[in-house]
UniProtKB/TrEMBL annotation:
Name of this protein: DNA repair protein RecN
Pfam families: SMC_N
Keywords: ATP-binding, Coiled coil, DNA damage, DNA repair, Nucleotide-binding
Annotated SUPFAM superfamilies: P-loop containing nucleoside triphosphate hydrolases (SSF52540)
Originating organism: Enterococcus avium
Coiled-coil parts of chain: 345-383
Length: 556
């Protein structure tokens, strides 16, 4: 239920705050006073598209805010959790801001939401029925949804079971389609990965191998330089005629003779002595290395070939042996995880056929449930149409088989004839505007009990009718108000008199600007307003008496 409505700088409304109650509320007033503007504002809260034309002349922005009772449907609670909107029993605050640049901002309980999500929320809050649009009835694709909303919990369970199976079927069908589309590229990738795995695996790389090979290559490549250097050094230190090592040994012995005479001499002697023994070790190592050295041309070729192989692998799979081995592990795991096999597609197609057969049985069960429900709906609508003085009308729900969809394998369209002897034809092509209004009211009377909408707004749906039909429409709107809050813009006194509450909307000029004012009418004010609706500009005692009579009859 819509509890509060605040409007600022919207069309000819400067500032307006309205409080609503449950039951049926009539909005009356002269043409152009702003009744439909209020409905436009409510439409924005339900997710209607905005326009800068809504902004009051001279203002930079407009605001519409509504406080709604919290819907009780489980689907609504799931939607709030999905959108991350916190809710409590205090209600739901919906706000739309529109500035002159055309930017619109929507908030629900203070959280910004997209217009698409606001529409999803709005469908739980308010249903606006205009005199010319009747969206649901005039679009056959919505007739199936209307029929389903007539179902009880047992029907909804059947439908939910089907929809779960349908989602599973669609998921598997997509998998089969993707498998077929990707089969060739999948095989090519497997072949490529297998080749890469074999190429890297056959190389038998080890961490640190490249550095060791490069070191060995450098030695082999510089063999002669190393031999010359070691030989010269060895000769310099061991030559019999000019042995550097012998000279240093002699110097060491000579220095030892004066080491005891002075501390400094002792230090010099020790250093030379140590150097002598270090050089002796070095000469031995040089000799050993010379003995080990051997030019191996074949080994040099092998080392170069190995380094070239590593270089080629690095170009393909990574900038180091470590990264190559890491890549090898990844593709090996991918090949291990790959469940591709020649009979994989066949298995998937068999499973899909089994699921399709199961889905068809569930769809047929869903259709049977709908056909049982169809008879009850037809009878209920016939009763409602009779109450609306369309006793000669005949209403029928017709089924047409279609392919699998989230709703089953059925397409549904409403057919009607309003004259005896005339064949049934699609509702959208047969009924006149007044008849459509009455059929819509018949449906709303029934569906308001099952759809769980908090508010239903009727925007001059009584246009073009009068007399007993007008009274019947008033009765139906009142009846709808017993299940959902009913807000009704009307020019008919019969409808206004039937309402539990009546708001009078008028416009006045203040400082050369037109403003819309709204006030809730007292019992006496209602009598005067209904008398005006009956008589027009000239109100007589008779019209006042008639107005009182309408109100008294409504109370009964």
């Amino acid at each position: 239920m819509l509890q509060e409505l605040t409007i600022k700088n919207f069309a000819i409304i400067s500032s307006l705050h309205l409080s609503f109650t449950d039951g049926m509320t009539a909005l009356t007033g002269e043409t152009g006073a702003g009744k439909s503007i209020i409905i436009d504002a409510v439409s924005l809260l339900a997710g209607a598209r905005s326009s800068i034309e809504y902004i009051r002349q001279g203002s930079d922005k407009c605001l519409v805010e509504g406080l709604f009772d919290l819907p009780k449907q489980s689907d609504f609670q799931e939607l709030m959790e999905e959108l991350g909107i916190e809710v409590d029993e205090a209600g739901l605050i919906v706000q739309r801001d529109l500035n002159s640049s055309g930017k619109s901002v929507s908030r629900v309980n203070g959280r910004i939401v997209t217009l698409a999500n606001l529409r999803r929320i709005g469908q739980f809050l308010v249903d606006i029925q205009g005199q010319n649009d009747h969206q649901e009835l005039m679009h056959p694709e919505s007739h199936l949804r209307l029929l389903d909303s007539f179902g009880d919990s047992a029907f909804q369970e059947i439908k939910t079971t089907y929809q779960i199976a349908y989602r599973e079927y669609v998921t598997l069908a997509k998998q089969v389609k993707k498998f077929k589309q990707n089969e060739q590229s999948f095989v090519q990738r497997i072949d490529m990965l297998t080749f890469q795995q074999e190429e890297i695996g056959n190389a038998e790389l080890t961490l640190g191998e490249e550095e060791k090979l490069m070191e060995e290559r450098d030695k082999l490549t510089n063999y002669q330089k190393i031999v010359d250097s070691l030989s010269y050094s060895y000769q310099a230190m061991t030559n019999e005629e000019t042995s550097s090592l012998d000279a240093i040994g002699s110097a060491s012995q000579e220095l030892q003779t004066i080491a005891s005479l002075d501390k400094d001499y002792e230090n010099i002697s020790d250093n030379v002595h140590s150097a002598y023994y270090l050089l002796q070790d070095a000469v031995s190592e040089i000799g050993r290395q010379l003995d080990l050295l051997e030019l191996d041309e074949e080994r040099l070729d092998l080392v170069n070939e190995r380094l070239e192989l590593i270089h080629q692998l690095k170009r393909k799979y990574g900038d180091s042996i470590e990264s190559i081995l890491s890549y090898y592990e990844r593709i090996s795991q991918e090949l291990l995880d790959s469940d591709f096999s020649g009979d994989k597609l066949e298995k998937l197609e068999k499973e899909l056929a089994v699921r399709e057969s199961k889905l068809l049985k569930l769809a047929e069960k869903l259709r049977t449930a709908r056909q049982e429900m169809e008879k009850k709906l037809e009878a209920a609508i016939q009763t409602e149409l009779k109450d609306l003085y369309m006793e000669n009308a005949h209403f029928e729900v017709r089924f047409k088989e279609a392919g699998f969809s989230p709703e089953g394998i059925d397409e549904v369209e409403f057919f009607i004839t309003t004259n005896p002897g005339e064949p049934l034809k699609p509702l959208v092509k047969v009924a006149s505007g007044g008849e459509i209004s009455r059929v819509m009211l018949a449906l709303k009377t029934i569906f308001s009990k099952t759809q769980g909408l908090t508010s239903i707004v009727f925007d001059e749906v009584d246009t073009g009718v009068s007399g007993r039909v007008a009274q019947a429409i008033a009765d139906k709107i009142y009846q709808i108000g017993q299940n959902s809050q009913a807000l009704c813009i009307t020019h008919l006194p019969q409808v206004a008199a039937k309402a539990d509450h009546q708001l009078f909307i008028r416009k006045e000029v203040v400082d050369e600007r037109t403003l819309t004012k709204v006030e809730e009418l007292t019992e006496q004010d209602r009598t005067e307003e209904i008398a005006r609706m009956l008589a027009g500009t000239e109100i007589t005692d008779l019209t006042v008496k008639h107005a009182k009579e309408l109100l008294q009859l409504a109370k009964k």
